[in-house]
Design a protein that fits this description.
binds zinc ion, Rossmann fold, 13 helices, eight-stranded mixed sheet, globular
Length: 471
């Protein structure tokens, strides 16, 4: 075997579908040395995969460093467990992700603590593990290439998925060999309400690349989007009802508040209708948006609507049971956690009210349960039966993920793709999206990342596909 096949990387996903994002990359050099690193370290949120949360199918002590694409719990939630298991390397992220990850990890710790109390199970990690994890973070600026070790360079590129989200370029070099370049999209979006997404620099577009491409909406086109949120809210308010909007703490909360402000500014929504925002973590992130320099567009420096009140424990029950007309914006986005657990059972029984979900509602969450409940039908919320009298609406218009057609456009801009690995999607979606890539882009090779196979990649692309030992 010549040197050419002794310089390679193995890429494996330890997650089967969407959540629990964590990829292990093993770099093998011709001199026999090896480096292991991971990209993201997320918590599994699908019930069927929850057992995967308890351990890693690799040795945490041997992982040299960790790269984080963005601050979503299904991408960072198991970092404290990694630290608990002996990881001592650095965790590289963007500046905003570094700022956000403190509150995110502490909030996730509290949620897990409550869950383990409720279910009488052992807690995954301690508060000290969270503190140790935070001390390993190293913030990196967008567009600046940093040397992680002698043969590995990393560049974080801005990505519209979320404030602080990045595409991560990893360049691996070895004297006398062609480079191996990997581009991880993380969760990807080509646009964001709060900032302009810059174009991918030309020098990156020209590189020979292996692209690890997310596929969350791999079977949906941007033209399939149902734009209805503003109309639904205005209709509800005009008819004298109140609206409750379920939002994710980071990104969606701030976007929905801004949309309400725009409706006020245009005169369509009266400023006399009070707006309440409930959810501790969402409020914390909102304050970070206002206080920190996160590179937001100038008009976004002031994105809060008039007549807005942040709700806390002391005022929550007045807002909850008060009969006056209002708009409530509350976490969690799927209705299963946070103050939404109180607002939904109360407002679902009110005839002229509207419950509006503003993002993806996973199977098994309250949001998805309400989708399958007819008007005037009974619905079990926990162990309480309620009659569904309110309207319940859903929209994907604020989605933070690019749709299939937009992802194809994204991939088209690269001149020299050696391999595309489709990642982060339901199993069927990944297959269908891979076929679409083959049909529309005709790349040399498309593989699908899951827990069963990993890919060995050299400077010229795929060497071969092998079985993992994860199952
Ligand atoms: Zn995400
Ligand atoms: Zn994700």
């Amino acid at each position: 075997m010549g040197n050419k096949t002794r310089f390679y990387v193995d890429i494996m996903a330890t997650h089967p579908e969407v959540t629990g994002s964590c990829m292990l990359v093993i770099v093998k050099y011709p001199d026999g040395n090896a480096t292991r690193f991971i990209v993201d370290c997320g918590l599994f949120q699908e019930r069927e995969y929850s057992e995967y949360n308890e351990s890693f199918p690799f040795d945490a002590e041997n992982v040299k460093f960790c790269l984080i694409t963005h601050n979503h719990i299904d991408h960072i939630g198991r970092l404290p467990l990694l630290t608990k298991n002996g990881f001592r390397g650095k965790i590289y992220s963007t500046v905003a992700t570094d700022i956000f990850s403190g509150p995110a990890l502490m909030d996730s710790y509290s949620v897990l603590k409550d869950l383990s109390k409720r279910n009488h199970t052992k807690q995954l990690y301690s508060e000290a593990d969270v503190a140790n994890t935070r001390s390993l973070f190293k913030a990196c600026e967008y567009g600046k290439t940093i040397d992680i070790e002698e043969n590995i360079k990393v560049t974080f590129l801005q990505n519209g998925h979320l404030v602080g989200a990045a595409l991560i370029l990893v360049q691996i070099t070895y004297p006398g060999e062609e480079d191996i370049n990997l581009l991880f999209t993380g969760d990807y979006n080509n646009q964001n309400m709060f900032f302009d997404v810059p174009a991918i620099p030309e020098w990156v577009r020209e590189l020979p690349l292996t692209i690890v491409q997310e596929a969350t909406y791999g079977t949906m086109n941007s033209t399939d989007e149902k734009v209805c949120f503003e109309r639904n809210i205005l209709k509800c308010i005009e008819s004298g009802g109140s609206a409750v909007c379920m939002v994710f703490s980071l990104g969606r909360s701030q976007e929905i508040l801004y949309v309400l402000k725009k409706l006020q500014d245009s005169g369509e929504l009266s400023m006399s209708v009070p707006i309440y925002f409930d959810g501790k973590l969402g409020q914390r992130y909102t304050n970070i948006y206002l206080e920190q320099k996160l590179g937001l567009k100038a008009e976004m420096q002031d994105f809060l609507p008039a007549n807005l009140t942040f709700v806390d424990k002391a005022t929550r029950f007045d807002v909850l049971y008060g009969q006056e007309q209002k708009i409530i914006v509350t976490t969690s986005g799927m209705g299963t956690y946070g103050p939404a657990q109180l607002y939904i059972p109360e407002y679902i029984t009110r005839k002229n009210c509207l419950l509006h979900f503003t993002g993806y509602t996973a199977e098994g969450t309250l949001g998805s349960k309400l989708k399958n409940t007819e008007l005037n039908e009974n619905v079990m919320i926990g162990s309480i039966v309620r009659k569904k009298r309110a309207k319940v609406e859903y929209t994907t218009e604020f989605s933070a993920h690019a749709k299939a057609d937009e992802m194809i456009e994204f991939l088209k801009q690269f001149d020299n793709i050696r391999l595309i690995l489709v990642n982060h999607g339901e199993t069927e979606t990944k297959t269908l999206f891979s076929e679409r890539i083959v049909d529309e882009l005709d790349p040399k090779c498309v593989g699908i990342l899951n827990r069963e196979y990993f890919f060995r990649i050299g400077p010229y692309g795929l060497i071969r596909q092998l079985s993992t030992k994860f199952h």
